[in-house]
# Entry
Amino acid sequence: MKALLERKKRVGLVMIGLIFCALWFPLFAAEEEDEEEEEEEISIPMEEILSFEKHAPAFMVKLRKEEELDAFPCMDCHEDEEPNPTERELEEDHEDLVLEHGGGRFWCITCHHLEQRDYLTSLKNKRIDFDQSYRLCGQCHFQRQKDWFFGGHGKRVGNWKGDRELYLCTECHNPHSPAIEPIPPNPPPKVRKGLEYVPTKHHKHVNVWEKYLPNQNKEEDHGH
Amino acid sequence: MDTEKTMGQADMTSAKKSSTGITRRSLLKKMGIAGATAVATTAAGTVAANVSGENATEFGDAVGEFFQDHYQKMSKQEIEEALARLERQYKRKYGVEVKVDNTPPQPNVLYGYALNISKCKGYRKCVDACVTENNQSRDPQVQFIRVLEMNKGSMNLEESDHYYNPELVPQEGKFYLPVQCMQCENPPCVNACPTKATWKEPDGIVAIDYNWCIGCRYCMTACPYWARHFNWSEPEIPQEEINPVTHYLGNRPRPKGVVEKCYFCVQRTRKDQQPACQEACPTGARVFGNLLDPKSEIRYILENKTVFRLKEDLGTEPKFWYFTD
# Structure
């Protein structure tokens, strides 16, 4: 609301400015330039002003649609399919796809463009490229997206300096079931020869994970 | 020995100065090998000159190695000779063409690391990537990274377990805390070393000259983070698993009887690459970068997240932070 008022005020100012300029053009030429710049800024859509994309350090993404998506281009099939927005059990294709995201709150076309199947869609029905899927996710996961832009979520690939390449959200999250599932860990370290593992519950408030086996050389120190 | 509280460049000079105080050689003398050392010292120049270059023999290299000066005191040429000698020795020992380089620190760079403990799932992918990248001994095992399994809601390290091995991670009620060398700004290990074999580089990396370490392990006792590891026996690495791209202060194969630890993958990071553990982490929990660059990811974390360091009260000033989402 405040922003809207602010905007009205500024538009008003611009108009006054324009009237003045028309009357004394040579005198106010400099001011006119300033006002024009301001007007341009106002015309930027609110979503983009809110977006941190422009303020974050420049980045590129590791592309996915051509390299990683088996079903892309979607239009290979969907050219001939009548788009069907109804929520239903899919049988002819995509039958393995499990949609857990949001706990049943959305259907495919919340994210996929109904007619132009090679694109994702924003909630306001604007096309989003598959290789810019972070723009889709960011509509609902604003804070994560902000962190992602600046390096607090997701991952920078390759180097810490120079060109900044990021993983897309979908490199780590399956967009249809985005929770990250538990996996087996890599094997634990081996206890060094001559030592024995001490289970945590027996630590008794001293910092040990291992103890010496009986009759071992006591000179060696703990745990390294 | 004077304690070193200054940072970066200043530290280099102070280390140089103090290394004229106690050196490995004077220490050896005190330990009673004075005779041998004295004789050999006079011979050093001539012998070393005779053995360098293409025709270097195993014996010649051994002599050259014995008389090699401290890393920070060597001239450019002496360092080059040392690197070439090491490459020959690795070739003989492992049958592999190992390249030992000496990439200098980058100007205006101070490395820092931040780890998101709400993302770390305890997979140990970083541990294994680190072992491979850094030519760590497979048997006996040496690992720079220790992933502690912790009870949720507690920061009690005494109740941690790094031998955890459930079927799946993360386990209910647990979180995971990887610990490695934190490249302290005020490193107690450096102060503990009687031979100045370990020091802080201008980019913040706490380096070890394995050729200068006498294996006394004082540094290991001094380190509050269990970050330093001793090679009790000859490190073993299968020939085909040797990483031939190495740095003198980093992942070049180590001999028996010296201490080693994480050095933020100096062989990679000084060439702009991410450390191997960052590269291996599938969750993006690890954020590495230049603390002096206000646009870096690491600075974003430090300025926008609630961060903490381990055992902060000790005043070690680690350059390794932990944070949560």
Q: What stands out?
A: Chain B has two domains: 3-101, 111-323.
